[in-house]
């Protein structure tokens, strides 16, 4: 059967209090009794001395008689006289143990039967015995030469015993009150301690159910308080460890998902590369076969040389951009960042692309506010050369390419807008994917590989920038980029 700790503490306290009060009462009452006995014996011994002195005085001042005759003749008078001196009942015996006088109203033996005590006292020794509420004290009477009898003093014990009963009742009532009050106080204290232990147990059960506590279950300045702090610390550490484990598990799951996505992307990437490489290689192989068959045809030889050179250049550009894109995706980008003035560098880029634009009958314009950014200059130039190259390739005759730069919200916002063929709505979400081209025939004619915008996005993100394709506003295409401004 399970017994609660509160009941165990209460029972232990009750037994401890009962034993304490009982032992204390026993020794106090026993000490009081022994003290009273010692006082009575001292008082009676003093009375015996007085009796002996009085008897000797009477014996020497009267007619000279033998001790036996003296006791027989003067016993009654002496007993009455000595009772007046001592305030006690006095009985005198001669050396033969016969009563020769008493202060009692009745004649005969005293209270009880002091025969044994009398025989002991006749041997010149002191004897006493209790009889009811009376103490009989027998002591030898000393004569001129030897013992001439025995004096018996009767001491009433009613007052002493009444005092002992009063003291006992006082101990019983006071002890009972102290016992009850102490039990109530101890019960309340132990009940508080037991309640604290119960809260500690409840906290431990909550931790076992993975319900971690947010504060110590008990606030005390003792061992229970220290135990509560320890349980709270343990709960917090377990919760932190499990949270860290869950976070690691989440990261592992995310890593697995990314690896799966990368694997799928790699498969698609390899498929796209194979497909894109196959087209120019097929064209080259076809011209090689024709040359083997008609090597004396001047026109075929000229066309073959131009086509093979064009497809070879396309393959070379494709390989270069694939290598650049792979380096960006696989390794940390190593750049030499420097303070760059945006408007000046954009002006330099427009100047470089001006010749190609004029070959296509296009016009490049620039409207940019001065702004300083912290960026790798080569990456910045590569980004906008790619964007301007695309704007030229996919533009229309007599078209325009416009660059616009403004500073807003601690960033420089640069828009590259052209008047070209635009991007269909169905292709807007895929425009930054590797090898994706809106019009494959137009891309082949212009030498496009479908890697330029993917490379541009990677470079922009590596430089803490953003790039987005704006919603069409009329004809053409517009890209908006932003970079943090150095204050």
Automatic annotation (TrEMBL):
SUPFAM superfamilies found in the cross-reference section: ATPase domain of HSP90 chaperone/DNA topoisomerase II/histidine kinase (SSF55874), Homodimeric domain of signal transducing histidine kinase (SSF47384)
Membrane topology, record value: Multi-pass membrane protein
Enzyme class: transferase
Gene Ontology MF term list: ATP binding; phosphorelay sensor kinase activity
Superkingdom of this protein's organism: Bacteria
Gene3D superfamilies: 1.10.287.130, 6.10.340.10, Histidine kinase-like ATPase, C-terminal domain
Protein name (database record): histidine kinase
Species of provenance: Paenibacillus sonchi
